[in-house]
Design a protein that fits this description.
2 copies of one chain form a homodimer. In chain A, the strands form 2 sheets. Chain A has a 7-stranded mixed beta sheet, sandwiched between helices. Chain A is globular. The first copy, chain A, folds into 2 domains: 8-78, Winged helix-like DNA-binding domain superfamily/Winged helix DNA-binding domain (Arc Repressor Mutant, subunit A, Orthogonal Bundle); 84-195, NAD(P)-binding Rossmann-like Domain (Rossmann fold, 3-Layer(aba) Sandwich), CATH 3.40.50. Chain A has helices at residues 8-26, 34-41, 45-53, 67-78, 93-100, 154-166, 193-198; strands spanning 31-32, 59-60, 64-66, 84-89, 109-116, 125-126, 129-133, 147-150, 171-174, 187-190. The first copy, chain A, is an alpha/beta fold. In chain A, helix 2 (34-41) crosses helix 3 (45-53). The interface between A and B is large, with 60 and 60 residues. The structure holds a DNA duplex (22 and 22 nucleotides).
Chain lengths: 207, 207
DNA sequence: CTATGTGAATTTATTCACAGCA
DNA sequence: TGCTGTGAATAAATTCACATAG
């Protein structure tokens, strides 16, 4: 193994590998070849081997990859080993779904705080989390929360992002349908499910 | 303009361009340069010009692009011009959020049917849509619905996809956290928000 | 003089083919 | 022999630079 800068495309694929490896682990599978993993994931075996080769010799030739070891290594690279505390801003329909989404826990994420600006929502209890007023965002730093999800209406997204940056947030998952500007040191990943649906008709047979 | 195969990357960006162009249009803006659009979107101007050049000469040199015309052209390429009827399978937390998501209407999508397997949910009315039993999926073809969203638990995703393919569905937006196998003529786009969150810690400053 | 449109150059990512290890 | 790991080949996407049109 030699040093390589890991490409963003590889980083994008790692969570997908991890997802199915966790499932395999739950099913008691201890080892898997790149071929089998590839057909499970719907990708090419050499893509998987290439991706893995960027950061280590994980496999055993003639055998395959050890599932548990691979999980450990991928988690380490993605920095998913511990628990990642996440704050949510905006507890509307989407925010509620985000809070209820069972997939996060699997990767060590826990939504430990929720904020909204509507007086009617503040104080309400959702599971273990009590909705706080957005003015309390500045408590995030001292509470050791470095990642936040934005699920507010478009017009409030930029000001929410600004407040989060002021509160020391280092990574933002943006569900609002717009581009937000942040300092370079802050990483933003925007998810707009309408954007994905919008490219589906292009691929449909002619009509 | 010459013929080029439009790359998937370009197709992925078109809905993002469209999103902000629609906002500009609502704000009454009639024309915009690639530079201004680029800074609005957080991308490079030449990327925008290159993308647009793949399918037409939309701009006016020295002036910029006509917003309304650009919207019309992008919609035409993405086949978003009319109304796209969408069926939803799985009306849990995520399914409810999908139904309530205001972003779809903007691109001409309308969720006109919803299905669930839980007896307690079947028959319930959500807005204009009455939840139907999944056994009624086979009515989709005659109802002229060609696109469906899957928001069922992982273990039910593949069988749901199979049923949708049998029902003549041509495009699937898969919210379930797994790969699903379908015939080549059917297009699947998988959205797993946990996958996006999972690569965020990688980009955070070292800890 | 401004801003588009596009070949050419560069960079990045994917695919291949096979050497090398268990 | 089976499957990984990886240089080399190929393909694809991005960036540049500038000719061209309004």
């Amino acid at each position: 193994m030699r040093y390589h800068k890991i490409s963003d495309e590889t980083i994008r694929r790692l969570p997908v590998y991890l997802r199915d490896l966790l499932t395999l682990s739950e099913q008691g599978r201890s080892s898997i070849s790149s071929n089998d993993l590839a057909s499970l994931l719907g990708v090419n075996p050499w893509q998987i081997r290439k991706d893995f080769s960027y950061f280590g010799d994980f496999g055993t030739r003639g055998v395959g990859y050890d599932v548990e070891n691979l999980i450990r290594q991928i988690k380490k690279i993605l920095r998913l080993s511990g628990v990642n505390k996440v704050a949510l801003v905006g507890v509307g329909n989407l925010g509620m779904a985000v809070m209820a989404y069972p997939g996060f826990k699997r990767y060590g994420f826990e939504i430990v705080a929720a904020f909204d600006s509507a007086a009617g929502k503040v104080g309400k209890q959702i599971g273990d989390v009590r909705i706080e007023d957005v003015v309390a965002l500045n408590t995030l730093q001292r509470r050791n929360i470095h990642v936040a999800a934005i699920a507010v209406p478009r017009d409030a997204a930029q000001e929410t992002a600004d407040a989060l940056v002021d509160a020391g947030i280092k990574g933002i998952l943006n569900f609002s349908p717009c581009y937000i500007t942040v300092p370079k040191k802050v990483k933003v990943i925007t998810i707009d499910i309408a954007m994905d649906l919008a490219r589906l008709p292009y691929y449909l047979p002619g009509n």
